[in-house]
């Protein structure tokens, strides 16, 4: 089966990883602007005060702020139907609790969306992509303070009203389920405490963390309700980091442990945002861990009324789970696991599993029965130019081709898949490490890990490959399988 007409082929980015211009035209500092660069062997450091002699990758990133016309033209040349982009909250409300929005910030995205539409590209806008104004962190400790819900909804409705005729597709919070893990709380919830030393060592108070997550759910639901009032044609989705895992063996203990992980990490947040209520298994987890979520009056109702229109997710790799200790481990999208002996791994230790994408799509569609969209998928690699100035990234083409085939197979299975935005369609800084050398894009950006380079853009071999995939609606891959 071919992909349906109107399938949304495209690519994805995030403001804090590509925009730069961190303190110009009225933009305030976001939490991401306080993160120094790291690597696989050196954790990123979070500084409460920005230091003059340290390097903060988001401050310039790839300078999309000044290159957006050039970049969007390249996406248009590839034939993108959709471009996933996030709005920097602190570019619109520099402190988060400002009385009025920053007009210069609003005007920037006016120009970006106009450029997208000029090239026939639908914007897909993430409202919060691991990003929150730093003032809301410092003054309110992020979403642990209920007042931040109202600040977010005001921001969300401000941009939805402004761009209601330019943007149809919206996502509320990126990979919100990382907040279920201690190291994921910082960027998702904007919470700090005196023990915070780096971005992988944030808040570990479960009561406070899950209460903050509840506030995020409420903020998302209120945004869905208000967004549909602004434009009834809006399509508003959630975004979950799906860390698909298999039992390492048929040992029932492995199977049970895998089920518990799947429920806690993958299913909990999706259940709340798609079904509008807390699932039974998380209530039991709360009871076992002395967590008591405070629901304000009207919270249950707003969660029910503010369910999303579609479910979007990231998928990069799979891992295994074992009840036995001492097994060989592997890396992943902030979440690792036990190594699967049947899979190959990328340079960064992420196990490549296109069949797992088909499995995941079927699992999610069976659970939720709403349209699905893959909004992050791709291969990070250390791309290098050859002697003729070309970047021959056949390894990326192989990865993407196999995942396109898996998507087609899932559609044949009956899954309703609305689109696919490959992550990092243009090289950008890594969220996990702040590196540039871990590249995903179809477009190379001359920038290194120390922030040096001309920022010149260069097409990789995969650029023309993906252009053909889009032009043929996937047939160029499926006819050669």
From TrEMBL:
Protein name per Swiss-Prot or TrEMBL: 6-phospho-beta-glucosidase
Keyword annotations: Glycosidase, Hydrolase
One annotated GO biological process: carbohydrate catabolic process
Gene Ontology MF annotations: beta-glucosidase activity
Source organism (scientific name): Vagococcus acidifermentans
Top-level taxon: Bacteria
InterPro entries cross-referenced by the UniProt entry: GH, GH_1_N_CS, Glyco_hydro_1
GO cellular component: cytosol
Similarity section: Belongs to the glycosyl hydrolase 1 family.
């Amino acid at each position: 089966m071919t992909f349906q007409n109107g399938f949304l082929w495209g690519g994805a980015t995030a403001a804090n990883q590509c925009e730069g211009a961190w303190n110009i035209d009225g933009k305030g500092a976001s939490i991401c602007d306080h993160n120094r660069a790291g690597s696989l062997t050196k954790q990123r450091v979070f500084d409460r005060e920005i230091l003059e002699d340290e390097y903060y990758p988001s401050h310039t990133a790839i300078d999309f702020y000044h290159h957006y016309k050039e970049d969007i033209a390249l996406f248009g040349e590839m034939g993108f139907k959709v471009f996933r982009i996030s709005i920097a909250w602190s570019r619109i409300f520099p402190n988060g609790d400002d009385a009025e929005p920053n007009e210069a910030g609003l005007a920037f995205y006016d120009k970006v969306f106009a450029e997208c539409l000029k090239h026939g590209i639908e914007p897909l806008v993430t409202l919060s992509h691991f990003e929150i104004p730093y003032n809301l962190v410092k003054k309110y400790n992020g979403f642990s303070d209920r007042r931040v819900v109202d600040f977010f909804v005001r921001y969300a409705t401000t941009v939805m009203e402004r761009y209601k005729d330019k943007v149809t597709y919206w996502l509320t919070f990126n990979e919100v389920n990382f907040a279920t893990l201690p190291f994921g709380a910082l960027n998702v919830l904007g919470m700090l405490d005196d023990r915070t030393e780096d971005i992988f060592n944030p808040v570990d108070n479960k009561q406070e963390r899950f209460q903050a997550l509840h506030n995020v759910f409420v903020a998302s639901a209120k945004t869905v309700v208000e967004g549909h009032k602004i434009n009834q044609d809006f399509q508003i989705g959630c975004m979950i980091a799906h860390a698909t895992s298999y039992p390492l063996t048929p040992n029932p203990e492995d199977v049970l442990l895998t089920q518990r992980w799947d429920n806690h990490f993958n299913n909990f947040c999706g259940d709340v945002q798609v079904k509008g209520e807390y699932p039974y298994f998380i209530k039991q987890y709360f009871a076992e861990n002395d967590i008591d979520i405070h629901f304000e009056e009207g919270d249950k109702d707003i969660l029910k009324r503010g369910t999303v229109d579609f479910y979007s997710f990231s998928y990069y790799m799979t891992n295994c789970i074992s009840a036995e200790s001492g097994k060989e481990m592997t890396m992943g999208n902030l979440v690792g696991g036990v190594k699967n002996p049947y899979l190959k791994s990328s340079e960064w230790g992420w196990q490549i599993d296109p069949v797992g994408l088909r499995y995941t799509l079927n699992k999610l569609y069976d659970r939720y029965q709403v349209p699905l969209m893959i909004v992050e998928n791709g291969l990070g690699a250390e791309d290098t130019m050859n002697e003729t100035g070309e970047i021959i990234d056949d390894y990326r083409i192989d990865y993407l081709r196999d995942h396109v085939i898996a998507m087609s197979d899932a559609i044949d299975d009956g899954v309703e898949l609305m689109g696919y935005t490959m992550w990092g369609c243009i090289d950008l800084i890594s969220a996990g490490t702040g590196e540039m050398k871990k590249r995903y894009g179809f477009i190379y950006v001359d920038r290194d890990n120390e922030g040096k380079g001309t920022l010149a853009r260069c097409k990789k071999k995969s650029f023309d490959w993906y252009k053909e995939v889009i032009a043929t609606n996937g047939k160029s891959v499926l006819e050669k399988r």
